[in-house]
Write a structure and sequence with these properties.
heterodimer; A: 93 residues; Alpha-Beta Plaits; two-stranded antiparallel sheet; 20% strand; elongated; B: 401 residues; alpha/beta; Rossmann fold; 4-stranded mixed beta sheet; 12 helices; 15 strands; 17% strand
Chain lengths: 93, 401
């Protein structure tokens, strides 16, 4: 976590002086449990990719590659939907 | 405010307080006025709407469907960089409540004449200060006017104060409902050009909405991580305003040959006792002071012109000279300890080197008249307190059965 600015160093009135700053907001830091995939069991059915509400399942060339942990909120839908149970939810330390 | 000669080109017109404020708005010619009529403020909006319909101003007049919408439209237009005004009273102010706070915390320099009226219930349309006193912690500046002349001048002055780059806070310009708003006075209206030059062309300090080259966000969600910092900024702005307002007042006084101040002292220099009161009742009190002075009684008056920011140092230094002070409140704070003005005066007087006796009188609720004799009786009580050093009851009521 970077050091946050104090009251003298931020725009007044709650103004956000630039557009598109939501991109910089890593919503993944809400997460309590993180999904971890066991690639040796994964059959690349991509159901996790289809069901993920935050587009946080990474896919390349039709293969499940892991998770975007900057944005995954740890809801566990992927683990729940996985037909071969290769995704485990592990507590964030 | 002491009478001074007016600048060349000033015209004296027979105007009610509401019309006088509408004249100030005509001269300011704001970009946007979004307002809803409510007694006894209606004549401000009505008169101004006529100016807009007659092409005397270039203002975009938005006749909204409620005060909540009025203040919402004002927030939008001020955020878009438009010089913005509205006006209200009592229940109208209450209906705006949510957005009143948002206007201040978003740091939008909206000028809002408020014609003081009792807040329901039971429903009443006449003067007291329960409406704006309820909004005293909303983050708005508040200036109280003794008569139509002051209401007119405070509206012009308020525009420059609100828009000052180191303040950027909205301001309520208050006058007493009916007593001032609907009584015709000879009001001196400055030349249009002089007012326009004083308020100047509005150049927003903050980046504004609707600028596609530099898009910004107003009013985002502000949680545990930054909300407190924004409140700290508001606190600083109010503190700064106490130093900056006298500079703007000074410029106003030089431009228009006037004697505005944060507070007005009336025959206080050698006074033994003093009354502290806002708005039109200060005028009545001056008459009583003059009459009692004729009889050799050393009585004086302190009229705070600004209530937000609260001119602490000026009040403490002015009142430290006297032995006993009566604070006259035209509102009840229902704390069980006295009215809002009394609470604040008492609080700042804790820091006085010598603390005079303090007594509170609630008066004039719901437009109940206060007479010269009532004020003379307060001075009589004060002179007794000064002599005996005893305050029987701190909280008293004038003119209630």
């Amino acid at each position: 976590m970077t050091e946050k600015k104090g009251w003298k160093d931020i725009p007044i009135g709650g103004l956000i002086a630039e557009a598109g700053t939501a991109k910089e907001y890593k919503t993944g830091d809400w997460r309590t449990f993180r999904p971890v995939v066991d690639h040796s069991k994964c059959i690349n059915c991509l159901q996790c990719w289809m069901y993920c509400p935050d587009s946080s399942v990474l896919v390349e060339d039709g293969k499940m590659k892991g998770f975007d942990y900057d944005h995954c909120k740890g809801c566990g839908i992927c683990a729940s939907i996985c037909p071969v149970k290769c995704i485990k939810m592990e507590k964030e330390e | 405010m002491a009478k001074t000669a007016s600048i060349p080109g000033t015209k004296t017109l027979p105007l009610m307080g509401d019309q006088a404020v509408a004249e100030a708005m005509r001269q300011i010619d704001p970009d946007v006025v979004a307002a809803y009529p409510i007694t006894p403020q209606t004549e401000i909006v009505m008169t101004f709407a006529q100016f807009a319909a007659d092409g005397k101003v270039d203002t975009e007049m938005i006749p909204v469907e409620s005060e909540h919408s009025a203040m919402s439209a004002c927030v939008g237009s001020a955020a878009a960089g438009a010089r913005t005004m509205t006006a209200t009273s009592a229940n109208g102010l209450a209906l705006m409540w949510e957005i009143v706070y948002i206007a201040a915390s978003t740091r939008l320099p909206i000028v809002m004449p408020v014609v003081n009226r009792a807040l329901s219930g039971p429903i009443n349309i006449h003067c007291d200060h329960s409406d704006t006193m309820g909004a005293r912690n909303s983050g708005w500046l508040q200036v109280y006017s003794e008569n139509a002349q002051e209401a007119y001048e405070n509206t012009i002055l308020g525009m420059r104060i609100a828009e000052h780059k180191d303040i950027l806070l909205p301001i309520m310009v208050c006058q007493d409902g009916f007593i001032t708003s609907h009584a015709v006075e000879g009001v001196e209206i400055f030349p249009d050009e002089a007012v326009k030059k004083f308020v100047g062309e509005y150049k927003p300090v903050m980046p504004t909405l609707l600028n596609v080259d530099k898009p910004v966000t107003y009013g985002p969600l502000d949680l545990q991580d930054f909300y407190f910092e924004h409140k700290r900024q508001q606190s600083e702005a109010i503190k700064n305003s106490l130093a900056i307002i006298p500079e703007v007042i000074d410029e106003f006084n030089k431009t228009f040959n006037r004697k505005h101040d944060l507070v007005e002292e009336y025959k206080l220099d050698d006074a033994d006792v003093a009354i502290l009161v806002l708005s039109s009742t200060a005028g009545t009190t001056k008459v009583v002071v003059d009459e009692l002075r004729e009889k050799g009684l050393k009585v004086g008056l302190l009229k705070p012109c600004f209530f937000r920011p609260f001119p602490k140092d000026r009040i403490v230094s002015a009142l430290s000279k006297v032995k006993a002070i009566a604070v006259l409140d035209r509102a009840e704070a229902f704390s069980g300890c006295g009215g809002p003005l009394y609470e604040e005066v008492k609080s700042v007087m804790y820091d006085a080197k010598v603390r005079p006796h303090l007594i509170n009188y609630i008066f004039g609720l719901g437009g109940r008249d206060i007479f010269k004799e009532d004020i003379a009786n307060v001075y009589k009580d004060l002179l007794d307190i000064a002599k005996t050093g005893k305050v029987k009851d701190q909280l008293n009521f004038i003119g209630v059965r």
